[in-house]
Amino acid sequence: MISRGIADIRYGIVGAGQLSTAFAVSLGSTIAWIANRGEARRVQMRMLLGNVDLYSSVEEVAAPPDCLIFAVSDGAVQHQAEASARHWGGALSGRFVLHCSGALGREALASCSRLGARTIAAHPFQTIVPSLAAVPAGAAWGIEAEAEDREFARNFVEYFGGTAFFLSDETRVHRALYHASASAAANYLTVLASCAAELATAAGIPASLFLPPIMHTALDNALLAIERNHSLPLTGPIARADIGTLSKHISELRAYPHLLREYCLFGIAAVELAARRGTLGSESRSAILSMFYAEIGDDHATP
After folding, report:
1. Same domain, yes or no, for 160 and 229?
2. Domain presence at residue 227
3. Which among 62, 103, 238, 283 would be 20 to 30 A from 137, CA to CA?
């Protein structure tokens, strides 16, 4: 039974992507080893971390660490857990085995749990970009753990400056929605920013000058509304049902087919948001949707 502090135990990390690198930077000398099949990536990790032991697989490691972390893709978690269980067997008993996938629960670690390992699903609700930085502080972590392992899970998260949130039974049942929320928050914002930047460039204005102020304000307003449990603010021609202005946008965008499609798809989502709130009447909703769907060639749409 491991009862020492987070910084007093030894960690083994499987994976060498963005998150595993961030873990390695944050945990420093407490890292016993890192396992990754990519030779080029192991060379990079060696340059970054110095004398940490690097292996191509867990099968090369004689004994399991105090805490084994799987920082791998969703599809690889169960496979890596099963490989570890076959290799170490009963030696995993009493040791912590943790994965960081938002799409999976503790069931992905069942092979280790059956051998007595204390399994935890700990997902940082944060985007991890390629860098040499530590685990970003300030994020909420969705946690699934047995009652007796919750203290360790909470301390683990707080060590990285995060907030542990133990997922309810309902959230675990609908884990795909939980993960979709994270994906939308991180990736769709990036897609939106890319679209806006390309539109600015097409218009002949510097995106670096014009976009940061308006996007910061829009995002700050949206986040404030979320914190206060208010409706998120929506402005612009869709909120005003200004079909004339939208028509002008579309007319210009026909010279940029991929931007036109993105603009229309974002517009459809905005129309439906306004309609759900009751700020956009049914006639205006149908008219604007018909215009957008006509441009993206969706003959099966029913506004």
Report:
1. no
2. yes
3. 103
User: How far from 244 is each of 86, 174, 283, 287, 291, CA to CA, in Å?
Assistant: 66, 42, 15, 11, 11
Q: Are residues 192 and 89 in the same domain?
A: no
Calpha distance 115→211 (Å, rounded): 54
Which residues have a Cβ under 8 Å from the Cβ of 108 and sit 6 or more positions away? 77, 78, 81, 99, 101, 121
Mean pLDDT (the chain) is: 92
Are 156 and 36 members of one domain?
A: yes
Q: What is the DSSP string of 229-297?
A: TPPPP--STTTTT-HHHHHHHHHHHTTSHHHHHHHHHHHHHHHHHHHHHT-S-HHHHHHHHHHHHHHHT
189: containing domain:
176-296
Closest-CA residue to 98 (of 83, 113, 114): 113
Q: Could you tell me if residue 1 is inside a domain?
A: no
75 Cβ contact partners less than 8 Å away, ≥ 6 residues apart: none
pLDDT (tens digit per residue) in 70-85: 999 999 999 999 999 9
- Domain identity same for 111 and 236: no
Q: How many domains does the chain have?
A: 2
Least confident range of 99-103, 128-132, 204-208: 128-132
Q: What is the pLDDT of residue 48?
A: 74
pLDDT digits (tens, 9 = 90+) for 21-46: 899 889 988 999 999 888 777 777 77
